[in-house]
Every structure is written in C-alpha cells, then in structure tokens.
Amino acid sequence: MAALRAAKQAMRREIKKRVAALDDQEKLRQSRVISQKLFKHPKYARCERIAVFLSMHDEVRTEEIIQDLFKHGKTCFMPNYLTQGTSNHMDMVKLTSMEDMMSLPLTSWNIRQPAADDNTREEALETGGLDLILMPGLGFDRNGNRLGRGKGFYDSYLERCMKHPKGKPYTIALAFREQLCQDIPVGDNDVLIDEVLCDVLD
C-alpha cells in the first residue's frame, strides 16, 4: 500500500509538471478539440442526464460543454464536494443554466460550488441516476485507469452509482495529451473508466 501511494504521488508530481508547462492558449486549443470530439460522440448524443466537472486551471475547459448541454435540453449535474475532517463525500447536483453556474460562489480551489446552505438542488442518485459522467483527473492510461488527486471522490461516487437501479453510468475522461501515461498505478478501490478523450488520434 505504501509503495502504491508513493508511486501515485511521484506520477502526480510528474504530470502536474507537464501540464504546468502548457500555456493558456494551448490548453484552450486542446479543450476545443476535445469538446468537438465529445459533441460527435454517439454516447453523448444519446445521453440525457450528464454530470460534468467545473474545470480548474489544470483541467480541460468544460464551459463550452456545459453550454452545449443546456442548448440541447439535456439535464446537467455538477460535483458538490463535501469534506468533513478526514471524510470526503461528493454528490452530483443539478445546474439549471449558465447563469445559475456563474452565480455560484468560488471555493478555495477556485472552482464554483453551491453554498453550504444550498440544499434545495436535485441530487442525481436521489432521482433518475446518471447516463454519463465526464471525468476529471490528473492522469490516464489507455486501459481505463485513472489517477485522481488522492481524495477518492469519484471512485466513491461510482461505487454508489453501481447500487442505483440505473447502474453505473458510462464514464468519459477529458484529458490533455500531456496527461496520458503508459501505465497508471492502481489499487483495489480505483474504478476503471470507459474511455479517454484527448486531442490525439485514437
């Protein structure tokens, strides 16, 4: 376990260094290519209830994707991260519009989140489940292994999805090419993702 943790930490440092070397223009260019790939994806076209992360500075930009979700009348959910002491919990809560998103307060991570007392939003697993989750992460390999930030938010949420009557949603990771790795070190609690979208040819 200690060896796995050390291997993951070393890989996180390496990937963060590679992504930090990208300028904003290149991040935006890759993000646009990935968004266009997603819009043509048959799974995306068919899915109605879709969860998408609100991107941080070192992640694929998702604003264009969120706009497209609303434009096509899909139901959009976003992560709501809750950390209490050593326990981490994530829900996927409903966003109603771009204006709704822009009105959310910024956290210390510089991402928008519902306020702590905002408990009126629909949570995906309490209603109809999810068809598709667009996944963030630090690193990915072609076998569906994902390296997160070490908090376990998404792995835990996918475990909860599996208990929902609808079952586990399809998962697509959005990645800069600099986040692709030959092999990601994984443990028993790491959940495989179905597909990685990036700007390189498949």
Automatic annotation (TrEMBL):
Domain of life: Eukaryota
EC number: 6.3.3.2
Cofactor dependence: Mg(2+)
Catalysed transformations (reactions): (6S)-5-formyl-5,6,7,8-tetrahydrofolate + ATP = (6R)-5,10-methenyltetrahydrofolate + ADP + phosphate
Residues that bind substrate: L54, E59
Entries under InterPro entries matching the protein: FTHF_cligase (IPR002698), FTHF_cligase-like_sf (IPR024185), NagB/RpiA_transferase-like (IPR037171)
Entry binding sites for ATP: K8, Q9, A10, M11, R12, R146, L147, G148, R149, G150, K151, G152, F153, Y154
GO terms of molecular function: 5-formyltetrahydrofolate cyclo-ligase activity; ATP binding; metal ion binding
Alphabetical UniProt keywords: ATP-binding, Magnesium, Metal-binding, Nucleotide-binding
GO cellular component terms given for this protein: mitochondrion
Gene Ontology BP term (one): tetrahydrofolate interconversion
Similarity annotation: Belongs to the 5-formyltetrahydrofolate cyclo-ligase family.
PANTHER family: 5-FORMYLTETRAHYDROFOLATE CYCLO-LIGASE (PTHR23407:SF1), ATPASE INHIBITOR/5-FORMYLTETRAHYDROFOLATE CYCLO-LIGASE (PTHR23407)
The name this protein goes by in its record: 5-formyltetrahydrofolate cyclo-ligase
